[in-house]
Amino acid sequence: MAELALAAPRIRPRLGRDEWLMGGGLLVLALYLAVTLLLPLALMLAKSAQDRDGAFVGLANFARYFGNPALSGTVGNSLWVSALATAITIALAFGYAYALNRSRIPFKGLFRLVAMLPLLAPSLLPAIALVYLFGNQGVLKGWLFGESIYGPIGIVIGSVFWTFPHALILISTALGTADARLYEASESLGASRWRTFTTVTLSGARYGLISALFVVFTLIITDFGVPKVVGGPFNMLATDIYKQVVGQQNFQMGAVVSLLLLLPAVLAFFVERWAQQRQISSLSSRAVPYQPKPRRSRDGAALALVAVVAVMILGVFGMAAFASLAKLWPYDLSPSLRHYDFSATDGGSWASYGNSIRLGLYTAAFGSLVVFIGAYLVEKTRVAKPLRTATHLLALIPMAVPGMVLGLAYIFFFNAPGNPLNFLYGTMAMLVLATIAHFYTVGHLTALTALKQLDPEFESVSAALKAPFYRTFWRVTTPLCLPAVLDIALYFFINAMTTVSAVVFLYSPDTTLASVAVLNMDDAGDTAPAAAMAMLIVVTCAGVRLLHVGLSRELLNRTQVWRRR
Amino acid sequence: MTTPYLRVRNVTKRFGHFTALDDVSIDIHRGEFVCFLGPSGCGKTTLLRAISGLDIQTHGAVEQDGRDISALPPAQRDFGIVFQSYALFQNLTVAANIAYGLENRKRPKAEIQRRVTELLELIGLPESGPKYPGQLSGGQQQRVALARALAVSPGLLLLDEPLSALDAKVRAHLRDEIKILQRRLGITTIMITHDQEEAISMADRIVVMRGGRIEQIGAPLEIYHRPANLFVAEFIGAMNLLPATRIGYGEIQLGSARLACAAEGYAPGAAVRAAVRPEDIVCTGKTNGHANSLRAEVREMEFMGPFFWLSLGGGELGEHRLRAQLPSQRARDLDLRANDATHLHIPAERIRLFPHGVGHG
Question: Could you give the ipTM of this predicted complex?
Answer without folding.
Answer: 0.84
